[in-house]
Amino acid sequence: xxxxxxxxxxxxxxxxxxxxxxxxxxxxxxxxxxxxxxxxxxxxxxxxxxxxxxxxxxxxxxxxxxxxxxxxxxxxxxxxxxxxxxxxxxxxxxxxxxxxxxxxxxxxxxxxxxxxxxxxxxxxxxxxxxxxxxxxxx
Length: 138
Hints:
- The protein is α+β, with helices and mostly antiparallel strands.
- The chain has one domain: Rossmann fold (3-Layer(aba) Sandwich), CATH 3.40.50.
- It has five helices and three strands.
- Strands 1-3-2 form a three-stranded mixed β-sheet.
- Helix 1 runs parallel beside helix 5.
- The longest helix has 19 residues.
């Protein structure tokens, strides 16, 4: 409902079917990642990647990736800053490596649908994830 803030769920929806039967586990946490940290903490995985809109300097559609803690120290990251910060600390305490894969938004006003530049970036990430899960070289 807040335009580009929906980029995470957009990507999740675009790759969820392809991830079925792989070792990639996808959870659509929407804007409440803290509701899923206990499940993720118990899961047999070493790495956790949150996908979200990132309130950072840069042109809309810019893709950023790194340790969630590094984004938190920089003072600007996900539009769900407190929830992700808490979730990241909890998961790190459980032995997980926690990352943020983000896209700089163009529009966070109330409305439906991604802006063109964010949708292009999201489609690129979707394609990258799909190639990685299917083993298709490119």
